[in-house]
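DUF2007 domain-containing protein
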Amino acid sequence: MKELLRSTDPTVIAFATALLEGEDIDVFDMDVHMSILDGSLGILPRRLMVRDADLFIARAVLRDNGIPTGLE
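Structure:
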């Protein structure tokens, strides 16, 4: 699995997940429950992971929809 996106904004994570699932790309949302540790302040980023084989197309989908990954 490769990290595709890291963000503290839950709306960006939700939008990216919906886009990728719409393209039949399996997405795993990591660090979802870390908000317990930061008191739901949103200071710890969540990560979206995809399979190695899907990384190229997943980056293209996000880029085409204006979501910068910042991990390229």
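Helices lie at 10-22, 55-64.
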